[in-house]
Write a structure and sequence with these properties.
alpha+beta; Arc Repressor Mutant, subunit A; three-stranded antiparallel beta sheet; two-stranded parallel sheet; 5 helices; 33% helix; 15% strand; disordered N terminus
Length: 153
């Protein structure tokens, strides 16, 4: 997805019914997603991804798989987050399943810890949909509940 020159970089945020979504964008890639208590004063509220999030929250199916993200995480965590990114809309999977999808050993405590750490430190929730994984993630619990309700999970 091309973001266009006006939205290639910056901080963008919008309040929705239940929460605020803040996006950090650099060179046309999403580098961070957070859920602050309020829209920051320095954040622009107009961004095509915020429009898509609004439509998604309104019930329009969107996998966000075309959104370019910049994952600046260790290699083992990158494999985990790429596996999470491939979990289909409307489905949830276990941490062990993500481990297997990432090429890790779902029986190994260290590998499972790697998966849990990667998911809990996910820099771009929504676009790497940790709300589709049964376990702790970077998305706050109240937002997870809302996103799962949107996807009828």
């Amino acid at each position: 997805m091309s973001l266009g020159s006006a939205t290639d970089a910056g901080v963008f945020a919008r309040a929705f019914d239940d929460f605020v979504v803040e996006l950090g964008v650099a060179s046309g890639r999403v580098v961070g997603v957070s859920f602050p208590d309020a829209v920051p004063d320095d954040a622009a509220t107009d961004h095509p991804l915020l429009d898509r999030i609004e439509a998604y929250l309104g019930g329009e199916e969107d996998r966000f798989d075309d959104v370019q993200v910049a994952l600046t995480v260790p290699t083992d965590q990158r494999a985990v987050l790429e596996a999470v990114r491939n979990v289909p809309y409307g489905e949830t999977v276990s941490v062990a399943r993500i481990a297997r999808l990432a090429g890790l050993d779902a029986e190994d405590e260290e590998d499972l810890a790697t998966v849990e750490r990667a998911i809990s430190e996910n820099p771009v929730p929504l676009f790497v949909p940790d709300h589709r994984v049964e376990g702790p993630g970077a998305t706050p619990p109240d937002v997870v509940r809302r996103l799962r309700a949107v996807e009828s999970v």
